[in-house]
Amino acid sequence: GITRHYEFNIKMQNVTRLCHTKSMVTVNGKFPGPRIVAREGDRLVIKVTNHVASNISIHWHGIRQLRSGWADGPAYITQCPIQTGQSYVYDFTVVGQRGTLWWHGHISWLRSTLYGPLIILPKHNVPYPFEKPYKEVPVIFGGGPNVSDAYTINGLPGPLYNCSAKDTFKLKVKPGKTYLLRIINAALNDELFFSIANHTLTVVAVDAIYVKPFETDIILITPGQTTNVLLKTKPNFPGAAFLMTARPYVTGQGTFDNSSVAGILEYKFPSFHLKKHPLFKPTLPPLNDTSFATNFTKKLRSLASPQFPANVPKKVDKQLFFTVSLGTNPCDHKNQTCQGPNGTKFSASVNNISFALPTTALLQAHFFGQSNGVYNPNFPINPFHWFNYTGNPPNNTMVSNGTKVLVLPFNTSVELILQDTSILGGESHPLHLHGFNFFVVGQGFGNYDPQKDPKNFNLVDPIERNTVGVPSGGWVAIRFLADNPGVWFMHCHLEVHVSWGLKMAWLVLDGKLPNQKLLPPPEDLPKC
Ligand code: C2O
């Protein structure tokens, strides 16, 4: 591989959308941010300089960071943030991955405007395991409630919102060609359906992993995930344009559908004019279409070919069971804002622990032997309080706050059941694991049954990925091999749930051999 250098200057930039101009935090003044392109095996050296008033940190979402955890990016987990006027060089090599990933800010809510594609091409002379596309196009969803008035495609809200028709993403295509769309869900809080009117999509990869190709009119994508699809254009100019739309999938009541975001697929044709030709619209499933969601996820299978095998851990060293919960805690009205029902506040937890970010980085504390007072190595392998997860809402005020990590010896083979407890809300929780890909060996609704469910696990061609939707009122089973020493964050990729504490960290110890140890930190590693 070669070394590729990038410079990210974090600065404020005025951006106008929906007829309002806002000053936002950007990379190099661009929104969405710049595209990073590398080949498998390349080294990326990205210098990030902070020219804004707030602290900054950038995460390379889905990059395995083998032994280079210092470059992973989550603030207070692998590094202290980059302070105003400071720089930090993220230096890592892309090993054994090819496809679409992305990068984003990883401190407070800054990822709402700090994000962009990270594209990994296969090695030279290694073809795709599918038809060579004529062109490749990133399609990145952003925005959403709490931070903006609209969802966006490639930063543009599209024609369905007032005052934004001219801010529409247009994909201009030629007839009879195959396009590779690299779809990324960078939205803050919503799983999205996506479709292009009158066109079928062939899913070929997710999270930089090839899958067994399958055709679908609609895809479902959670925040944090990527999906590569092939789009075959019609053989001749169709005399029409086609809307592409995305909108949320949520099963809870009281959720909004603040309409869809749309872009336009337009065939290049000399006399084409949007006003003269019809515009076809796709049909998306209802907001709460769980059966579509379930069927779609079931179709995702690793390619599992001799060239791209699915190395599913067959034996398990450690079996873990985590509850993923939203609940409420008592709120002290004098010192806190209490947004929960009946004067409570929201809290979110994994195994009844709502994760508290430390004031220094966990990885530093670990590496320099200064964990005392920073974290406890006693994250529970089972919930503190067992209950029937899908019965009536239990008394969920037994959440405690803490900075606990789960320690794994090098090369531990882990099976983890993630059980949603569905106390509030009806969304899947897109659980994202840093530093690893995992295999989704099983999933279901209701309570996980340790007697029956493992009999149906797929150990042959389960999907391999870095972010999985834990279904509302259900569970998923994942397996991974802890072959990457360091401290690795795991959290829900819905930003509002992260802020309520739906996060935890793993500490994977060094192995015995020299090439099984975390590399020493770079000299410019930021200090807290
Ligand atoms: Cu894409 Cu920890 O995040």
Could you walk me through the main structural features you see in this protein, from its secondary elements to its overall organization?
This protein has 528 residues and is mainly beta. It has three domains: 126 residues, Immunoglobulin-like; 173 residues, Cupredoxins -  blue copper proteins (Immunoglobulin-like), CATH 2.60.40.420; 199 residues, Cupredoxins -  blue copper proteins (Immunoglobulin-like, Sandwich), CATH 2.60.40. 4% of the residues lie in helices and 40% in strands. The strands form seven sheets. It has a six-stranded mixed sheet, with no helix packed on it. Strands 11, 13, 16, 18, 19 and 20 form a six-stranded mixed sheet that branches. A hairpin with a 2-residue loop joins strand 14 and strand 15. The longest helix has 10 residues. The site of CU-O-CU linkage (C2O) has 11 residues, from strand 5 and strand 32. It is found in: Secreted, Extracellular space, Apoplast. This is Laccase.
> What is the CATH architecture annotation of the largest domain?
Sandwich
The quaternary structure here is single chain
CATH class membership of the largest domain: Mainly Beta
Strand content: 35-45%
Looking at the structure, what is the overall shape? globular
User: What are the segments in which pLDDT stays under 50 over at least 5 consecutive residues?
Assistant: 253-257
Counting DSSP E segments of at least 2 residues, the number of strands comes to 33
Span of the ends, CA to CA: 34 Å
- How many alpha or pi helices? 3
Domain unit count: 3
Helical amount = under 10%
The CATH superfamily name of the largest domain is Cupredoxins -  blue copper proteins
Q: What does the radius of gyration come to?
A: 22 Å
